[in-house]
Amino acid sequence: MKSEILAAIGETELQPAARLNAALAANDRVKYAFSLLQMAVAHAEHPEQQTSTLKRERIACGIDDPDLDAVVAGARMAGKSCTIAGAARVLVRIAQDMRVMAAPVLATKPEGLAERLEGLIKALPAAIDDLVDPDVIGAMTQVDHGGVDSLHHLVMDLHKRLNACRRLLPWRRWRAPPLII
Fold it and tell me: Where are the domains of the chain?
């Protein structure tokens, strides 16, 4: 949204910074979503253990959806699958935020990133009736899964590249002149 507004008023120098800020915010939302799904699966598998709402984390990353606060406590096993209320919505958000997160990197040095991103997004589990396979959630959120790529691994790679992009912004090297009072 910010990028479109900046483009409309002709502020092209600020667009990379706006995309970078949006990408870093998307990074926070994806990490929250991963934690939410992991904790929901853990609770479904061990309902006797205490749960967390992750409300503070949800608010901190800018997600205005209080229904997500009940997701962990409401997760239940259904055979070998796990019922997670809103799982389909969460997975759609992950896909959207992954694209936002990748945008600044894709605009600079994509190096096969677009194909990797789309391949991992296509591999997202389908959450029909909010039923998900706990193993698929585990594989998606693992960093080292026997040499198999995962969304979490991509998030880490993108975050490193975003930090590198942030260091390249022109005003990072610019210093304001001292104030004369």
Answer: 2-168
